[in-house]
Task: inverse folding
């Protein structure tokens, strides 16, 4: 079954209003969640709604947050999200970064007391419409990664996303975890009864772990070994520790906890192209680079060379036209949620 | 043989003065190059001196650059390095970023028309003494990396470095290429007649390439497959394209060219801890995290868990005490260089 993004947005809004969030704020969150589904970020859109509602009902999230600028200087701001829904906090923070970058050229906005905010690409992409590059970092909401050589899970899959405007070509949008596989992929493999490839996880003895039902007995592997560990660590320091948000042992596993605020930390940087030079010239050079890469000679068996964000862009076009596919188990869980909230289902 | 950093610095200064650079600027470059050797960045310190002198003599580098701020806003600056030695340009840029971050909280400084500037960690570490985090990105000076699935080498090993102040613990300093192995490691393996492990390089058919003497027939692999390709690409867009510096097909291979300016691009960001909160509290939390990580339970066979920069810090302590080791082939090449320049050798 497929639904239009409007239908999906209306459904999410109904659910959030029924859970106690104001109409305007519910609509703002729903718009971002449906956008995630439109863009193909299936594990970070409406899929998360039952969990969000569970945590709202558990008292883990503030329904009437006073999201505010706690500190500010010309090139930065620190946002206190007051434990509001992450989408509201990050929309506020990204708009602040864009506004400040108009005069400052570049603005770095740190965030504390936020919550899970959906896919990183949502926020890294927002500055693009303002002829700005967006750079986003976050502390993930569950530690699945030890330090390199260790087995205590002190780090999350701390992601980075970068959105870069192009001219005639679609923008370049990188959105990646610092682990080989995001934890959502492990969950999906478990649901489907599939084995994981070697390289995704190891167990506490260092042996490859390929049975996703045994995921609790092991942990994710970072990209490039100690390099990915280093990236997860410094992205966490920048998005978490710097802002007074949770990092390391203070990270709350929001998959197994419906009552504790996560104090999620993020960072969003807006970089104005106009501050650095001619905007049209920049976009022309990005287009050239994209075309050089796409026209590159290929390894045997490779059908096409893709740019970061290209597949997401194609999904967006397709889903705008045909609607967003909802697999049966997801549809069922959403309609169960609707019944529990006393609202119309999908 | 070991030399003190003072001896090494004096030698590099003599060589650069003999090559035509002013005394004060030669000393400034030599101090940074010797610091790289002190920190254990053996492939990025005095090892590069013969190549630098060759390119100076070939007219590829401007001996009397007018390094200047071309554009400026409260949160950023764009530096035109006027094709000066990379160390001079990056010292100027980093000092500018630190100065601006004192009032702006965060300052992002882009650089164009620079040259190879030694290890990334040199510049990411400079803000630490000012209670700031340093974040550095650069476009490498030779393309050894294709887009994922391609064989045209359109990307370099574009590195990232992040320096984070701690309290009683040494600072955290991550410095890494976005490829599994830096190209210098391939060269070292070739010199020593050793095979490379699978995973460093592949050939144009996609087969593992383990003979470093055949390196020209293949290319480096990015960390995490398409993820490392994505990182190399966006770091290059931020350090190169944004600043009007070389990127993609415009990158000059400075290993095989002594006459063409490279228009090397870098970015350095200085982030003031005081803008975000209490500095002592930040450092205490970094110390706690470092100790949690170090005390983590370990995988079988692992003797210690290390923080990024820890081994470099230990080398610095050792080399301050015992001097910097110079392997025979390096010493020989430096004394040949000295003879050619008519200066005293080591």
Result:
């Amino acid at each position: 079954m497929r639904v239009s993004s409007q239908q999906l947005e209306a459904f999410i809004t109904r659910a959030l209003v029924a859970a106690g969030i104001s109409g305007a704020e519910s609509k703002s969150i729903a718009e971002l969640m449906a956008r995630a589904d439109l863009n193909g970020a299936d594990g970070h859109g409406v899929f998360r709604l039952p969990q969000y509602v569970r945590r709202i009902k558990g008292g883990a999230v503030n329904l009437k947050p006073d999201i505010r600028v706690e500190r500010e200087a010309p090139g930065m701001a620190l946002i206190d999200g007051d434990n509001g829904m992450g989408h509201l906090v990050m929309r506020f923070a990204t708009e602040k970064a864009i506004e400040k970058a108009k005069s400052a050229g570049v603005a770095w906005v740190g965030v504390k007391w936020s919550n899970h905010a959906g896919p990183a690409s949502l926020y890294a992409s927002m500055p693009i419409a303002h002829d700005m590059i967006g750079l986003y970092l976050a502390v993930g909401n569950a530690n699945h990664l030890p330090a390199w050589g260790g087995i205590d899970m002190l780090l999350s899959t701390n992601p980075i996303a970068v959105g870069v405007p192009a001219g005639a070509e679609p923008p370049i949008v990188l959105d990646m975890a610092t682990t080989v596989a995001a934890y959502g992929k492990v969950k999906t493999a478990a649901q489907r009864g599939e084995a994981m490839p070697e390289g995704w996880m190891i167990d506490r003895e260092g042996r490859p772990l390929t049975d996703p039902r045994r995921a609790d007995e092991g942990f994710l592997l970072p990209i490039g070994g100690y390099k990915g560990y280093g990236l997860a660590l410094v992205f966490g320091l920048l998005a978490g520790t710097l802002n007074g948000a949770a990092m390391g042992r203070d990270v709350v596993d929001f998959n197994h906890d419906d009552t504790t605020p996560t104090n999620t930390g993020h960072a969003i940087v807006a970089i104005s192209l106009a501050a650095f030079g001619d905007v049209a010239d920049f976009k022309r050079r990005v287009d050239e680079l994209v075309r050089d890469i796409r026209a590159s000679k290929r390894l045997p068996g490779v059908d096409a060379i893709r740019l970061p964000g290209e597949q997401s862009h194609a999904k967006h076009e397709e889903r705008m036209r045909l609607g967003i596919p909802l697999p049966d188990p997801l549809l069922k869980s959403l309609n169960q949620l609707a019944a529990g909230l006393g609202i119309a289902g999908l």
